[in-house]
Amino acid sequence: MAWDFETEPEFQEKLDWMEDFVREKVEPLGLLDIHPYDVKNPRRNALVRPLQDEVKAQGLWACHLGPELGGQGYGQVKLGLMNEIIGGASFAPIVFGCQAPDTGNAEIIAHFGTPEQKERYLEPLLANEIVSAFSMTEPQGGSDPTGFVTRAEQDGNHWKINGEKWFSTNGKWADFLIVMAVTDPDAPRHERMSMFIVPVDTPGVEIVRNVGVYGQQEGSESYIRYTDVRVPADHLLGERGGAFAISQTRLGGGRVHHAMRTVGNCRRLLDLMSRRAVSRTTRTGTIADYQAVQMQIADSYIELEQFRLFVLKTAWMIDKHRDYRKVRKDIAAIKALMPKVYHDIAARCIHIHGSLGVSNEMPFAGNLVAAMVMGIADGPTEVHKVTVAKQHLRGYRDVADPVFPDYSLPNRRAAARALFDPVDELAEAAEATA
What we know:
This protein is an alpha+beta fold. The protein has four domains: about 10-115, Acyl-CoA dehydrogenase/oxidase, N-terminal domain (Butyryl-Coa Dehydrogenase, subunit A, domain 1); about 130-235, Butyryl-CoA Dehydrogenase, subunit A, domain 2 (Beta Barrel), CATH 2.40.110; about 245-395, Butyryl-CoA Dehydrogenase, subunit A, domain 3, CATH 1.20.140.10; about 405-434, no CATH class. It contains twelve helices and ten strands. The protein has a four-stranded mixed beta sheet with strand order 1-4-5-8, covered by helices on one side. The chain has a four-stranded antiparallel beta sheet with strand order 2-3-7-6, with no helix packed on it. A two-stranded antiparallel ribbon has the order 9-10. A hairpin with a 2-residue loop joins strand 2 (about 150-155) and strand 3 (about 160-170). Helix 3 packs antiparallel against helix 8 (about 290-320) and helix 5 packs antiparallel against helix 7. Pfam families: Acyl-CoA_dh_1 (PF00441), Acyl-CoA_dh_M (PF02770), Acyl-CoA_dh_N (PF02771).
């Protein structure tokens, strides 16, 4: 039996390098008026490409990928520790080659794509020469993909796609879209949809508008309409009817990464509220001297450490079992817990900073909105809680307790007396012969 909360020295050196590199060179990029995904912007490339080269020289580029794709093939624990650092800077995912949704899209093309699809789309995507979008959610679809209505119908040696997709992240920058559409409406619910690679310049692809999350100056969540969009038959990704299973492949590890990036953001918030608490003076001292502030600091620290350990334990279980299905309950649990921890710590940070905290001179309101986004993205919190409950209750399916179950106190007392009656009889016999 072995329990170890230490990181091997060689990898810790990598993490230490990442901490300094992200803080000193990557974080400042987020304060400039450029977007990480705008790969056609010369200024962006002039700033980002040299940093990507430094990451590659350290052997830390796209570490979620196997060596055959230019990565390190790291397990989820190592990736989690890296994402804790990456989460604090908006440009860090791009600089380290692990930006969503490109990572998930690359993963499914690597697993399910044809050699031609890999050459045309995967290779430039891995090199960050292009970016992509995952066009799945629909305006009326909500959290249930079995309610999607976008259709793809065979038309000779092409597929013809019609429908609308909502919140296709980074659609405005994308060179290609991965689109989920209904191909077999009469099949079982989870076998009705297929996935397609759709170049964004295909006739009939219309970006209706780019929606911004509240507080963003420029939106990048695309509302896309597909009108008689024809793509060649060889642009089917994976098997016909396999879209639901493919989508699950890309989400498991991504949820762990989101959670650890949230840990990084929360750690930053705790650091800033602590600095404010010991620096902001009042008539009698600093606000850190007040118990009300101390309670907020303590709650934030406790919740953050609990959440971090839970996420790393889940990552460890994934590495151990190498099967996301065996860790489904815990993946859903960290996804459900993440927005609450993030929201509560961000709210306390705002409160401790007072009027400055709610102003546009601090980023904390954006953290608060980001926490709410985390409660919706990759499935809403309620869906994940249902998953946790269902997975947990599977271990109780054979239980059929009576009205007065065996764990009621009268029944437990009766069982205890029956267990110890022979002992009492021996003790009475020994006392009688003494």
